[in-house]
């Protein structure tokens, strides 16, 4: 019975295959409501060891496009030093790459090579940021922005990092970036910066926050104007700008006012003391009011005093969970933060591990008794 059923099923499948027209052989029918996949694209990606299931899950529409350049795109990547595994990874992550015309990809490659030391380095960038490289819709804007930033004598390494991390900055007209750079230059010089160090300062800002060029010039002026009204000197403002990097352009005066008012009241400090606290912990300016309130009360709940927070305001940069964990770990070695300094609590994870390690070593090391008799190894 089973053999008869199997034979009938095979015969039925053969009849169905004969009924399918030849024109449909290049496409895979998925469902009546979906555009059929281009079987040539699917087969070409499969030959490159691309995970088709991953592409179908996240970018299925790419497989349905009538035109694609899979082998040509792979050839360009291979020419830049990519092996089979890297090519497959790039096309899985950004399958839209196969829809780019080969001549456009070649032009884009030449453009990026102008800011990369070699093709191998460019290949590393493409592997990490494929979408940035295969965005080909604003080639002329990209070219003009590269030439402008190079005219400022910014290093090609910084420009390449900007193109990879913030491609939107290069897709827009160069006049917009010129306006932001002009505002940054005015800000730096108005705050007492030296013209000779302007290029280094700009490169530092751009490398620390690649999205700096996307911030409106007016936002810089509004934030700095508010801080001037709080009594910060030009030197102090320059320090804040350098510490906050491009984040200062994201700050709204009303939000900064709320944060400063809360800190002033919570720590019962004067205006001058408040300025010192902000200089030591600029992050206070961009934390939301609910975040500051929760972190401050969390410190009070574990017995930390107001004076301790005033002396080590950087503790407010840490979440309540991290502070509790560090306090408990220090307590296990006999260090009570309520009677000591919070400096051992603040800082990065590495900073804390170093402080914690010193305490641990201090506890394990025996005290030296200068009057005890010395013993030799033989004794």
Task: Write a compact overview of the structure shown.
By secondary structure, the protein is mainly α. The chain has 21 helices and two strands.
Separation of the first and last Cα atoms: 94 Å
> Could you report the average pLDDT, rounded to the nearest whole number?
83
Write down how many β-strands occur, each being a DSSP E stretch of 2 or more residues: 2
> What portion of residues is helical?
55-70%
Largest sheet: 2 strands, antiparallel
Strand content: under 5%
Residue stretches low in confidence (pLDDT < 50, at least 5 long) are: 1-32, 364-379
The largest sheet has its strands arranged as 1-2
- The class by helix and strand makeup works out as mainly alpha
**Which sequence of SSEs, written as H and E, runs from N to C?**
HEEHHHHHHHHHHHHHHHHHHHH
Number of helices: 21
Estimate the global geometry from the Cα principal axes: globular
Q: Compute the CA-based radius of gyration.
A: 31 Å
Keywords: Transit peptide
Pfam family, one: mTERF
Family: Belongs to the mTERF family.
Protein name: Mitochondrial transcription termination factor 2
């Amino acid at each position: 019975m089973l053999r008869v059923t199997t034979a009938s099923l095979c015969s039925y499948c053969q009849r169905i295959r004969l009924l399918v027209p030849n024109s449909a052989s290049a496409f895979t029918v998925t469902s009546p409501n979906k555009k059929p996949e281009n079987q040539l694209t699917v087969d070409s990606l499969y030959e490159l060891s691309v995970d088709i299931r991953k592409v179908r899950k996240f970018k299925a529409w790419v497989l349905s496009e009538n035109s694609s350049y899979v082998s040509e795109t792979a050839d360009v990547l291979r020419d830049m030093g990519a092996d089979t595994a890297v090519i497959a990874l790039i096309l899985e992550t950004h399958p839209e790459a196969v829809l780019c015309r080969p001549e456009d990809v070649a032009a884009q490659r030449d453009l990026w090579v102008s800011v990369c030391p070699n093709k191998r380095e460019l290949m590393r960038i493409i592997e990490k940021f494929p979408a940035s490289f295969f965005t080909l819709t604003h080639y002329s804007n990209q070219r003009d922005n590269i030439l402008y930033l190079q005219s400022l004598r910014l290093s090609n390494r910084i420009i390449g990092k900007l193109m990879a991390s913030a491609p939107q900055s290069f897709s827009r007209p160069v006049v917009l970036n010129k306006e932001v750079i002009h505002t940054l230059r005015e800000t730096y010089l108005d705050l007492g910066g030296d013209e000779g160090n302007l290029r280094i300062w700009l490169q530092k800002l751009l490398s620390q926050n690649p999205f700096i060029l996307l911030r409106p010039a007016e936002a810089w002026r509004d934030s700095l104007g508010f801080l001037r009204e709080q009594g910060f000197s030009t030197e102090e403002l320059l320090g804040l700008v350098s510490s906050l990097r491009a984040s200062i352009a994201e700050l709204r005066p009303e939000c900064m006012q709320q944060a400063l008012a809360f800190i002033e009241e919570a720590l019962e400090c004067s205006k001058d003391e408040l300025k010192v606290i902000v200089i030591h912990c600029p992050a206070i300016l961009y934390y939301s009011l609910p975040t500051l309130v929760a972190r401050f009360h969390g410190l009070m709940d574990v017995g930390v005093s107001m004076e301790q927070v005033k002396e080590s305001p950087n503790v407010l940069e840490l979440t309540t969970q991290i502070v509790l964990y560090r306090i408990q770990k220090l307590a296990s070695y006999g260090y009570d933060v309520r009677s000591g300094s919070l400096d051992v609590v603040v800082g990065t994870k590495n900073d804390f591990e170093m402080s914690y390690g010193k305490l641990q070593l201090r506890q394990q090391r025996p005290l030296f008794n200068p009057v005890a008799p010395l013993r030799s190894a033989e004794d």
